[in-house]
Amino acid sequence: MCPNCNERSAKTHKTYGVLPCEVCTTARRNVLQPAASVEFTTEEIKKSRKEYKHDIIAPFRQGEVSKEYLDEQKRTNRPHNLNISKEQEENAKNVWAGTTTYYEK
Ligand SMILES: [Zn+2]
Predict the structure, then answer these.
(1) Considering its fold, how many domains does the chain have in total?
(2) How far is CA 31 from CA 19, 20, 21, 36, 37, in A?
(3) Rounded to whole angstroms, how far apart are CA atoms 57 and 77?
(4) Rounded to the nearest whole angstrom, what is the distance from the C-alpha of residue 25 to the centroid of ligand 1?
(5) Separation of 7 CA from ligand 1 center, angstroms?
(6) Domain containing residue 77
């Protein structure tokens, strides 16, 4: 039974448990619209950040090709689509992490 109107049957959600019926949910959503959409956006961003993690690695750092980026593209079987020469690709360095030890060699 809907906890809000006690008339119609409630909906159940695997995380939130018992939810008000369709009619009450719609009425509530109309009232809470701004807050609800903000939360939705945040969740969407979190989700897409997780899914497209490899896109966050920038392909270049101060003009140097990022090996992390190329490796990530290789790992996910995607062409890197960078306008770089074969040589640049082979000489790519890990420009985003552990760079100090790399340069000390
Ligand atoms: Zn209701």
Answers:
(1) 2
(2) 16, 14, 16, 10, 12
(3) 16
(4) 7
(5) 6
(6) 59-104
**Does 41 lie in the same domain as 17?**
yes
Instruction: Using alpha carbons only, give the angle 44, 47, 50 rounded to the nearest 5 degrees.
Output: 150
Give residue 96 CA to ligand 1 midpoint distance, Å. Answer: 53
pLDDT tens per residue, range 46-103: 666 555 554 567 889 888 999 988 998 888 888 888 999 999 999 998 888 754 444 4
Distance 45 CA to ligand 1 centre (A): 31
6 C-alpha to center of ligand 1: Å? Answer: 6
